[in-house]
Structures are given as C-alpha cells and as structure tokens.
Design brief:
Elements lengths: L5 E6 L6 H17 L2 E6 L13 H5 L9 H10 L2 E7 L7 H9 L1 H6 L8 E8 L6 H14 L3 E2 L11 E4 L4 H7 L1 H21 L2
Parallel strand pairs: 1-2, 1-3, 3-4, 4-5, 4-6
Length: 202
C-alpha cells in the first residue's frame, strides 16, 4: 500500500546520539515494514545559518540567499511526501539547529506557496528527562506543519499521542534504545505516518 511513500527523516541534533538513533531507527522500521523509500539528513557537522529575514526569497522567488548546507536539504524536502522531524529537547523546546532549518523553509514557500501542501508530517522528541519537554517540542513541529499546509499526525492515544517521545536518560543512543516505551511510540507514530501518507499520495 505504501510504495508511493517517500519518507524523509531529519535529525536536528548536533550530535550523533539519541536523536540520531531514534530517527534512523524509525526510518529502518518504515523501510522494513512498509518498503518505503527513505532519505536522511542530519544537522551534525552542517553549516546552517539562521534566517535573517532579508526577504531576498520573497523579492526574487529564487530560493534562499544563504549558500550553506541547507541548500543540500531543499531537494530532499521537495522530494519527500512524508517528513519525520527529530529534535533533542533544549530548555523544554525544539533545538536551535532544527528551528533554523524550519525557518529557512520560508525560501521554498516564497517561491511556491503550495510546495508543502498535503505532505504528511510527524515528530520525534528526545529528552534526557522523562518529562523534559518532549510534547512542547513535538507541538512546535506540528505548528510548522499546520502553517505550511501539511497534514500533521501523531501516534494515537494510550502511548504515542502527539508523536514519538523518547527518554534517553542522557545516555545517548544506548539510553534511547533502552526506552522500550519511547521506541514503541516512535513505531506507532511511523505506522500512522505511513498509513496517512499512503492514503493521500496513492
């Protein structure tokens, strides 16, 4: 049912740790269970400038004036019809690296206001504490999806709710992998993401 789904996973973390593990695990699960096409992008080691609101993208409609590593991500964002965003929790919220990426999407929307229309989006948030801000972090991703005419999904009630909330215990990939309930929520979120994307993009 899902051979039309093209899934992009993005880890906004500057480290190869828990968030990287959670997003890659989700992509592997989607590929193995649903045979979807996947792409991956990590913020680690990338040059990602903040949006400076210069309005070059609005005036010229030629994309972003900043020629950094976000330029390599733009084609993947267009290619995918399902997105899975992953962020560590920083101060109870989305990390700055992923926020900068989302802000820089303005350049694509300025060129084509419908470029993200009806793409399906879900989120994963990884916190060092069990209740460290995972849900507000995912809610920020959902807000982005809504503003850009995408369709946000969660993992459903009784365990996954807004999306994949993972508790790493500040032990990196090992800690995330040990959070059986968190990984279960990630898988349930992927199930819903692929299910809705298959319906919309068949």
């Amino acid at each position: 049912m899902s051979n039309t789904v093209k899934l992009l996973g993005i880890s906004g973390s500057p480290r190869l740790g828990a968030t990287d593990f959670a997003v890659k695990s989700a992509l592997d699960y989607a590929k193995e269970k649903y045979q979807v096409e996947t792409e991956y992008f990590t913020a680690r080691g990338k040059k990602i400038g903040f949006c400076i609101h210069c309005d070059h993208c609005v005036r010229k409609r030629e994309g972003c004036i900043q020629k950094d590593d976000v330029q390599d991500l733009y084609p993947k964002l267009e290619w995918a019809n399902a997105w899975l965003l992953g962020s560590p929790v920083y101060q109870g919220q989305i990390c700055g690296q992923l926020k900068a990426i989302l802000d820089r999407c303005r350049a694509l929307v300025a060129k084509n206001p419908k470029i993200f229309e009806n793409k399906i989006g879900a989120g994963i948030a990884v916190g060092g504490d069990r209740n460290g801000g995972q849900e507000p972090t995912i809610q920020t991703m959902i807000d982005f999806y809504l503003i850009n005419e995408m369709i946000p999904v969660g993992g459903g009630s009784f365990g996954a709710n807004l999306g994949g909330a993972v508790w790493s215990r500040d032990k990196g990939a090992e800690g995330a992998g040990d959070d059986a309930e968190g990984i279960k929520a990630v898988c349930r979120t992927v199930d819903r993401l692929i299910g809705v994307a298959s319906l919309i993009h068949k």
